[in-house]
Amino acid sequence: MTPRTTELKKHYDVVIIGAGGHGCATAYYLAKYHGVRNIAVLDKSYLGAGNTGRNTAVIRSNYLTEEGVRFYRESVRLFQDLSNEFGMNIMYENRGQLTLAHSDAAVRSFRWRAEVNQHLGVRSELVDVTTIRELVPHLRVEEDCRYPILAGLWHADGATARHDTVAWGYAKGACDRGVEIHQLTEVQGIEIANGGVSAVRTNRGRIHCGAIVQAVAGASSVVANMAGISLPIQSYPLQAMVTQPYKPLLDPHVSSPHLHVYVHQTSRGEFVIGGGSDPYPRYQTQATLEQKEALAAAALELFPFLAQAKVMRQWAGTTDMTPDYSPVMGLSPVKNYYLDAGWGTWGFKATPISGKMMAELVATQRVPDLIAPFDLARFQRFTQVNEAGATAASH
Amino acid sequence: MKILNCPLNGPRNISEFTYGGEYHAMPDAAKSSRSDWAEYIFFHRNPAGPVIEWWCHTASAYWFLAERDTRNNEILRTMPVAEYLSEQQA
After folding, report:
1. In DSSP terms, which residues pair with A362 in a beta bridge?
2. B38 touches chain A (CB under 8 A)
3. ipTM of this predicted complex?
4. pTM value surpassing 0.90
5. A94-157+234-320 CATH choice from 3.30.565.10, 3.30.9.10, 3.50.50.60, 2.60.120.10
């Protein structure tokens, strides 16, 4: 999927900054459901070059807060039908997700999450070690290790998909409906008149616009700053790696918040190993030996046979972390400037629903109920949405 | 191994330190609004470039300030808090 290169027009009704999954999905739903087609999606690099292609492709809705569960539940439902909708196989695989408890406190929080999830129609249950052994026969569950496994939170709705294809599908569907995607087009300034946005300055010239949506995970503060907006975000790298391929032997996604690691096997056979964000912020995707060692050590606690595995690739993405582990999306202090930010380590799984909700917001100028709790102004009201189920590997 | 030059303990491996967030000037509690406090507690410049931030040498519980460029992770300087504050007042 390569977007056609065309000249930039002088005016667009909507400019979306960032041609990743979220930006392309917003354009797609605006064109499909709201008849808004004079849209430019701008990206300083190429389609899906940012965190869309850097996440570890986990799809799940087993969050803790009611606001979070409702939101991600809708995202999982949309994901399930995306291949049909796009006419493009996103390789959606409903593998299930198992989160491990190594302490009594974790068992308590898993019971809580399971109750909230079941109440809202999400499949989550507390499972014992015997069930864990059946679900993941190669997992080390012996008690003579440093952090014995006490129980698990089994989330049957957990899934994975090919992340690039999600962006490509939305991009193609948007372009088919008249949306323009402009790669290598970097936004360098945002012009504001009468309290609202009027134009963006890019390396390819100035464009007038009726509204702007920023969907730039990993650069949210930098872009928002161009519009004079300050955000409750700090940007940390998150490092991941994959091993050489093995025969299929691990079906679900397995994560351990206590060991700060998660592991799953792709349909190609590689083991994907990811963990928590780095200990301090950087706008850099360079690896550090400390973080790689910690990841490997934790993965070996769970799957000792990986000691023989060779690491094939490693990479990092920049995670825009918020104080309450929930996104910052919706209205901003600038009229006609909409935020889709603060996606920390939970952005990929929110791609379809974020696009759909941002499109509705831009088209109707009314904040959909589903995203109202995630507005920027919650920090001024002290009504944060403390999402302790947001990251599978830390918190 | 990345080295951070602690004003108290000298050059040490950065893994011996705990990151403490961006330095923000504290508003006057008696005069500030709720909104000012929200700004102080939650919001960050988070720049792609030089930033003044809090660091603590974990073992000696010594807090100090460092100026670091977040684009290349270069530590530009480290200083005791008092040194930075007197510089700001000057």
Report:
1. none
2. yes
3. 0.95
4. yes
5. 3.30.9.10
